[in-house]
Amino acid sequence: MGDRKILLIGSAAAIGLMAGGALFLTQQGGAGTGCSASTVAGGMDAFGTEFTLTRQDGQRVTSAEVFDRPSLLYFGYTFCPDVCPLDSARNAEAAALLDEDGMEVQTVFVTVDPRRDTPEVLADYTSLFSDDMIGLTGSDEEIAAVNKGWRNYFKANDAEDQEYYLVDHMTNTYLVMPGTETVEFFSRDTPPEVMAETVACHIGATS
Questions:
Q1: Is 169 assigned a ligand-binding role in the annotation?
Q2: Of 85, 108, 95, 79, residue with least CA distance to 166
């Protein structure tokens, strides 16, 4: 953890380009359920894919097994200097707020760095934010496929350093309902209270 702590206070310039999220996602007036604060070309139903990945406890799990309840899905990596920890903490806080209102929502962290993010590393990382956070990793091909399903761009800057490299990636969080149905996304500047309110609205609309 020592090297990671050093990086946490370092520059995040290499991933700052992606901090604003996807270019094709825009925060504006919603439609449909009346809960949405965002729109996307092609509709939110264009996001998502079935998968089988490895959970932080080493178990292989399918997308149906993971998304058995409303979930806040985020793509990041454990060596991330500051963006991923902040976003993961925000997502965990939103889930905790919803839990206080009697709504069970889980957080899911899919790595974009499967080379370093083994199940054991993910277990240590997710435990920093929530006992209920699910961490998922897999082969390079599996991780590429699931990122493609949610249109998540990522690129490892490892040409010169195979150990302490950073990874460019997008930073949106997606609300995935049971059945792998993606209904909403949140940019990284969305406060946990606003996120919780929007998620609660979607849950109420599908109840």
A1: yes
A2: 79
Per residue, what are the HEC states of 152-172?
CCEEECCCCCCCCCCEEECCC
In one-letter notation, the amino acid at residue 35 is: C
Residue showing tokens 């609205």 = 201
201 is in an annotated binding site: no
Contact criterion met (CB below 8 Å) for 117 and 111: yes
| Rounded distance between C-alpha atoms, residue 107 and residue 71, angstroms | 6
CB 91 within 8 A of CB 194: no
Alpha helices in the chain, H assignment, sequence order:
2-8, 13-16, 63-66, 83-100, 119-126, 140-149, 192-206
116-164 pLDDT per residue, tens: 999 999 999 999 999 999 999 999 999 999 999 999 999 999 988 889 9
pTM attached to this predicted model: 0.83
Q: What is the pLDDT of residues 74-96, one digit of tens each?
A: 999 999 999 999 999 999 999 99
Dihedral (C-alpha) 67, 48, 25, 71: value to the nearest 10 degrees? 0
Q: Which CATH architecture has domain 31-157+164-206?
A: 3-Layer(aba) Sandwich (3.40)
Strand partners, 40: 25
Domain boundaries, the chain: 31-157+164-206
